[in-house]
Amino acid sequence: MSERIQLNQQLSLGKQQDENQYLTFMMADEEYGLDILAVQEIRGWEEITAIPNAADFVKGAINLRGTIVPIIDLRLRFGISSIDYGPLTVVIVVSVYIREQQKVMGLVVDAVSDVYSISEEKAKDVPDFQDSNNAQYVSGLVNVGEKMVVLLNLAKVLDLNAK
Amino acid sequence: MSIDLSQFFEVFFEESFEGLDAMESELLNLEPGKEDSETINTIFRAAHSIKGGSGTFGFTSVSDFTHVLETLLDQVRDGRRTLTTEHVDLLLKSVDCLRTLLRALQSEQEPDLTEADALRSKFEEILGIAEATACESNDEKADEITQSTYQIDFKPKAHLFKTGNEPLFMISELGELGEIETQVFHDAIPDIAQLHPDECFLSWRFFLTTDSDSKAIEEIFEWVEDDAEITITVCGGIFEASTETLSEPESADGKSAEISSASITPPKEINKKAEPQKNNESSTSTSIRVGIDKVDSLINMVGELVITQAMLSQIGEQEITESTITALQEGLAQLAHNTRDLQENVMRIRMLPISFVFSRFPRLVRDISQKLNKQVELKLIGEQTELDKTVMEKISDPMVHLVRNSLDHGLETPDKRIAAGKEPVGTVTLNAFHQGGNIVIEIMDDGQGLNTDKIRSKAIANGLIQAHDELTADEINELIFMPGFSTADEVSDISGRGVGMDVVRRNIQALNGSVEVASASGVGSTFTIRLPLTLAILDGQLVQVARHTYIIPLISIVESLQIDITKVSRVGKDLDVLRLRDEYIPILRLYDIFNHQGAIEELDKTLLVVVESDNHKVGILVDDLLAQQQVVIKSLEANYQKVDGISGATILGDGRVSLIVDITGLIKLSGLKRPGTQELLVEQQGSEVA
């Protein structure tokens, strides 16, 4: 109940201008944020059809009301060791424009966390860490209270053809 | 009473365009000097119906132009004139011109008549100026003779409205006959207290200048003869007379008001406003012609479906016993059968033979080859291959691009061809066929092939690749699909602006298709377009490999069998070949190619599905055969990307996703090379040249 109140507070905050709302989720004790407008729905883990010869982070495809939706394990995409999927494993279904084509994909994450409203100026704060391959997936870092949230550039994360 | 002709415009345009298409294809079939009277008749008939139709609807620009065309054709038909190549060229040009005119009219624009006039004067030149002018002046004379002005007095009786007649309709109908001046007399209108709203107190006087005779006018008033006094008199024949009457005492005394021709125009204006909207709609929503047999069979099927439904609901109301369960099962089986039939037939409505696209190419090839001074023979194969209408509409432009490219860049000029030891006449082949849920369109030419050196240096110059990049021939050929790439030495109006191939690829990819090029220097190049049959249904064989279920298109399966281990021999390091009757079938291990763990590896415990693709037979090793069923093809690419060896996905009865195996892709993926491959390749190239 208290969570919902908090969420509502956050939502009402989000109506202020220049603020974007982000859905955050947990992965390996880190908190990541997605633009909430890209999120279509959140589902539980279900049985999945493997795609032959796909990269390890492509777990397969599911049937989402008649559409074939590929499922990406974000842990593996970021090179973090994977954990076993259980009943609590969450799939965030997002809709993103990748190279001018709209794609619907599912992201496997550890758990969904919160919704924050973050002003654009705050979110623009991108540190320069050239040495990491994962840097291109990050659109910004932001502090929310004591915590740090990594905002993701979904179009890059899900662009499977990028080298 | 009066009929709004504009509702038939669409039909007229549609028919005219069809007529023009027919004219065009027949003209292309004509060999000058050896014209066949049936062909000429067909062309003549098409021209004649266009002329008739456009005359009816008042599109004089079209009917006048078609008239000269018809005159020439008439002379040819009667054997008074022989058709020359110039005539055919001129006729083809006029077909184009008519098409432009009709398009302009269709979109409610004023047609540009400069080209039509130019062509017309050429026709008149051929027909002989004297004759043409005589003919024209005759027409004019005829017009003058019939033009006359009628004075029509129309005094309806009070009960006119009660008979269900509406004077406004008659007036606007009169207005369609020619120019009309109207006076209305309202002196009979009583005081408001005595005024009956359902009685008519008005009377009219019209001055109509028209080329129709008085009969036409009488016809308009035929229905109200008994309910009105009608007098029709011929005036001096000059329109001015009617303007004079305006100043007559009657109109000046204030009791009669003058409703000038402006009062007639409102209904016309309304018509005009309505038409553009209609046409806008028609430009986005196109119609489809469906054979009545297809519709009839649909109605039959829906009828059966209703019967089955009634039967099932009847069973559902009964108490459940064993016999009802059997009946229920039977009913469900029938329902499944009906649903499938219905689905198939509904799909068939959208499917049209690809000849609709192919038919425009003979003309295109003829025009371009003339412009380029090349001799080209066009071969069309697989014209009856059916394709979804939407896909077909979108594929035609990319195909035109590719064919133009083949003609411009691919084929050499006759002397170059002779120097290269080839026939002087080049061949462009369009081939369409179905392959595992895809439609494949091949555009082959036997020209010089892609010049890899030239492409490479051009790509370096354009900064697409670096000078030190190592590329295979295929990778270099791929470069032509990059934006801003053109190797034509000179930019021509046929191709070479460098906006071609990348647009072609993008358009095809937008249809979830792909385009590839294969080329051999001096032998020719082949562009292969693969398009999914969107919405298509596929008969599939479900197979199991480890814990995965795949679907193999039933159409490519030759047979399924248990492997006789004694007939298997190993070729090379890791390829097993089965001797099946007189053939050697290489065995592809699906689990190996798709990288799945946990499948049965022993040959004698598995099953082999023998499939055929491009005349190659291969055996696919699977753990087990499951059901056969029809599946709806869904795109895997839409949200993901192209997967080698997989043509699409589908959703099984239990909601799970299953992937459909693309046999050709699978063979490619397995990297299969087998004895005799070399010969086969040569054979294929040979057939391309032929």
Automatic annotation (TrEMBL), chain A:
Coiled-coil annotated spans: none
SMART domains assigned: CheW
Keyword DNA repair belongs to the record: no
Start and end residues of each CheW-like domain: 19-163
CDD domains in UniProt: CheW
GO terms for cellular component: cytosol
Subcellular location: Cytoplasm
GO BP field: chemotaxis; signal transduction
Domain of life of the native organism: Bacteria
Keywords: Cytoplasm
InterPro entries, sorted: CheW, CheW-like_dom_sf, CheW-lke_dom
This protein's name: Chemotaxis protein CheW
Species name: Pseudoalteromonas holothuriae
Taxonomic lineage: Bacteria, Pseudomonadati, Pseudomonadota, Gammaproteobacteria, Alteromonadales
Originating gene: cheW_1
TrEMBL record, chain B:
Comp. bias (Basic and acidic residues): 269-278
PROSITE patterns: CHEW, HIS_KIN, HPT
Function: Involved in the transmission of sensory signals from the chemoreceptors to the flagellar motors. CheA is autophosphorylated; it can transfer its phosphate group to either CheB or CheY.
Signal peptide: none
Keywords: ATP-binding, Chemotaxis, Kinase, Nucleotide-binding, Phosphoprotein, Transferase, Two-component regulatory system
Taxonomic lineage: Bacteria, Pseudomonadati, Pseudomonadota, Gammaproteobacteria, Alteromonadales
GO molecular-function term, one example from the UniProt record: ATP binding
Residues annotated with Phosphohistidine modification: 48
Domain HPt: 1-105
EC number(s) given by UniProt: 2.7.13.3
EC primary class: transferase
Catalytic activity: ATP + protein L-histidine = ADP + protein N-phospho-L-histidine
Protein name (record): Chemotaxis protein CheA
Keyword Ribosomal protein: no
